[in-house]
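Task: fold both queries, return tokens.
Query 1:
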Amino acid sequence: MATVTATPLSSETEKLSKLRSAVSGLNRISENEKSGFINLVSRYLSEEVQQIEWCKIKTPTDEVVIPYESLSPPPNDLSETKELLDKLVVLKLNGGLGTTMGCTGPKSVIEVRNGLTFLDLIVIQIESLNTKYGCNVPLLLMNSFNTHDDTLKIVEKYSNSNIEIHTFNQSQYPRLVVEDFMPLPCKGEIGKDGWYPPGHGDVFPSLLNSGKLDTFISQVTPKTLADVKGGTLISYEGKVQLLEIAQVPDEHVNEFKSIEKFKIFNTNNLWVNLKAIKQLVEADALRMEIIPNPKEVNGVKVLQLETAAGAAIRFFDHAIGINVPRSRFLPVKATSDLLLVQSDLYTLVDGFVIQNKARTNLENPSIELGPEFKKVGNFLSRFKSIPSIVELDSLKVAGDVWFGSGITLKGKVSIIAKAGVKLEIPDGVTLENKEIKSAEDI
């Protein structure tokens, strides 16, 4: 359980006063950002962490988490569908860098398959809707200061598409030095390392501050926001709520991770009425749980205070969850996930990644790749072509392993190269229920 150490009121007031004075001199950010940052820190210093009473947590019922199968089918009338789509804005959070997979730019420009990036697929999906139904669904990208410049250059390639693309930046907050609670940029760290984007919960105020919220409210009767992550949906005191691991008491962490009690998790997708967002942000009512994120920058211990967008669900009236099938959720967090979506397990249809019907097992194979494959560049260089894995149950690869082209993997396959040995899997081989430790085992 994340906790806040009790601090004497005078000490809190003094810290905030000094911090407010220091932040006022930071010319790199707007007055809205300064105000939002001070508000977040003030809450962190003064508010007690809301304790979750474990005994009150219940598995959500079909009244608060609706089975996907129970939703009404789409209308047969194209004009009715167009009318619904004309109320839609698609927002993607585009502030993340692909650093986990060794990339330096926006994660959205990692190639998924057939030379197409995540962003390409998103654009193709929306273009297909706009063409088929004669509608104008716009795409809205929330960038961070890390991805803003690159994204503006990237979206130029879509200038001739039948889709409007809008961008705005989420807030930029100074990292706090733990020792004295002063902004890191005031300590001489004038580069990007002195700053951070305060989590995807910032999407709501940034959408309002950017002016985009009012723009789209004036154009549509809006419905959608997309792509946030983390936690599990629970029923708590009669309301659907997002439970993050930071809120879980230590003695219940293993239970939280179990799929027996918590079978539903957040698939990083929100559908929200934009007028409701405007009303709640202007009333300062979206007070999501603060997530303290400690870091170290050039030997200095710093703190980032963040919020998660999904945690806002409890502030919206009549909020519900939808329990969607696994086929609608295909995250790519690591190169092992990238292997799945690049393989013959999937095909592309109108920008959507669809599971190959030749796969009889609805569950994806479990993929475990060693550190040699962690970065996208290394991952791609070690495969002449992605193996066929339609009949694969599990794959474990470790050590200096290289794959040829036209390889087929079936059943349970383990390839573990000995230390200091380069192990090459030749072109065209089929490995079925094999443990490979040397070339002789192939």
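Query 1 returned. Query 2:
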Amino acid sequence: MTPNITESINVALMSVRKLPIFDFLEEVRLMFGRWNHDNKHEAVCTFTPLIEKFQNILVENKAMSTRMEVVSSTKYIYNVTDDGRSFVVCLKNKTCSCEKFQYEEISCEHAWVVLKRKSLIVDGYCLDLYKLMTILKIYELSIYPLPDVAEWVIPEYIMYDEVQPPKFKGPPGRSKKKPRAKTIRELLGLKGQHTCSTCEVAGHNRRSCRNRPQEV
């Protein structure tokens, strides 16, 4: 899956992440079943060559293709002049120097005016993924609901099978040791200095301490 799809799924499942694993998977199944039904219903109710989002892009490109001049270079390559700027369209490779044709994989406004001049079907130069028949094939399989847990028939070899965690193999080489925790003296910047055991002041020892009790 692409990152965009993954992020959309993660956001949709944000509220059910803390559920037990069985309840979480059930929510995932319900969500995908709902998405599958809605997308299939939208495709069935579409009567344009491309689905709505990409059909709108095609219509916008058609509107921008007006007042453009086309000059043929070869059988497949054309020069299109748009408001003083020149663009090169290659129908064979489905490319345009504006790069929208190959990036969006939809006939850009420059390719559109060339296809119109040659009386070619515009949606024939669009990605098949955007077409209605492809979308219907994607969602032709339905996601059916599951029966209640009490009605499940689980074989004994699965019921009493003990699931072990996956075996973990450490990376090769010597393992890195954790850094030693610093003492209070090191944290206070007193490392290397003597601390008097009588007054607990750094900078001198017990023998040179002025607060040392006098011996009788």
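Both queries returned. Flag for query 2: The chain has eight helices and four strands.
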